[in-house]
Each structure stands twice: as C-alpha cells, then as structure tokens.
Amino acid sequence: MQILLTTAAPTDGEELGSLYRVLLQAPTVRGGAQLRLREAPPRPGEMGGAFEAIQLVVESAFQVANLVIAIAAWRSTRKPPPTITFRIDSRSAEITSEQPEQIDRVIESLRDPEF
What we know:
By secondary structure, the protein is an alpha+beta fold. The protein has 4 helices and 5 strands; from the N terminus they run βααββαββα.
C-alpha cells in the first residue's frame, strides 16, 4: 500500500524533512516501510524544489497504525502542530490533534479492506 503524507504548514518543506527523519528512526515504522521524500519542481531561479510530500510503501494495517501513532507523537513536539494529510488511493484522512479518538478514526479510515 502506498501512502502520501503532506502538510499545509507555512514551512512545510522543513516540517516534512523533520517528520521524515523521525520516521526513519522509528523502529516500528522503518522496519516494514519504504520511505522517500518527494520534491516539488523548482521555482524559477531556484536550484532545487522544496519537499512536497513523504511517500511510504507499507505492507500491513499494523504498519499503518504504527505510522499514524508515530506522526501524532511527532506533531506533539511541533509548535504549532501542523495538520498532516494521509492519502491512500482515493481515501484521505487528516491528523489535527493527538486525541486518541481522532487517531483511532484516522487509522480506521485508512484501513484497507484487503488487510
């Protein structure tokens, strides 16, 4: 399953870079996921584009749940915490708080019926 993570934070390239580094270090995420940063096309006069998304490939619903929990924990360290949007195929969900009820709803909405 391919997951695309984005944020609308004003410094979204920096935030995505920070989140990417955290996910690379999280044993429950990196052990079963392939991660890469996706760059936006450079604007005129720029040498390279800013990061626009984190792309992950996971193999199980358990990995999706671990990913959502790791991102919620990372968000709690950011001031202000950015909204993170998950996209899987035609489904999408957002994390806007660390409330357990919202985390559960996000995990459930991203669950693939094939898992």
